[in-house]
């Protein structure tokens, strides 16, 4: 089976995530990058959107999650985003990065991010380390 990657980078959405009250009140921008492991062979052969991931719909779904119910940790947010990606038909795994460039850190920095990788339970592909 072919293994391809569809990537959506730099999705910027205002959210109210964080452990501090001021983060929940004012909110801040979060930036999301996702890479989805899937096969695009049938979509390429047929030139039909129904055989691939609709990245416009994907961006809307992820933006709704970021702008939605607040969580304390970007780790939790990343997990919710990965779950949404894996709920899509044809997606075998998702690599999700959530950036929080305005995190309340006293030191000078350019970004804070969390990256997680999750695999669909239904995937038959073998990944490094023998994971399904």
Give the overall average pLDDT.
91
* Helix content percent band: 25-40%
The helix tally amounts to 4
Give the overall shape.
elongated
> Strand content of the residues, in percent?
25-35%
N-to-C order of helices and strands: EHEHHHEE
Name the structural class: alpha+beta
Strand ordering within the main sheet:
1-2-3-4
- Computed CA radius of gyration, to the nearest angstrom: 16 Å
**Strand runs, count:** 4
How is the quaternary structure best described? Answer: single chain
Q: Unreliable runs, pLDDT <50, ≥5 residues? A: 123-132
Largest beta-sheet characterization: 4 strands, antiparallel
Distance between the termini: 15 Å
């Amino acid at each position: 089976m072919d293994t391809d990657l569809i990537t959506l980078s730099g999705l910027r959405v205002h959210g109210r995530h964080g452990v501090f009250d001021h983060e929940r009140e004012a909110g801040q921008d979060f930036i999301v990058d996702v890479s989805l492991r899937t096969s695009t062979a049938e979509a390429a052969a047929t030139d039909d959107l129904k055989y691939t991931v609709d990245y416009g719909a994907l961006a809307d779904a992820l933006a709704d999650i970021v702008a939605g119910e607040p969580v304390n940790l970007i780790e939790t947010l990343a997990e919710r985003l990965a779950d949404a990606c894996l709920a899509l038909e044809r997606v075998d795994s998702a690599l999700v990065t959530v950036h929080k460039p305005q995190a309340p850190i006293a030191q000078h920095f350019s970004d804070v991010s969390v990256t997680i990788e999750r695999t669909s339970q239904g995937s038959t592909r073998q990944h490094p380390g023998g994971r399904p």
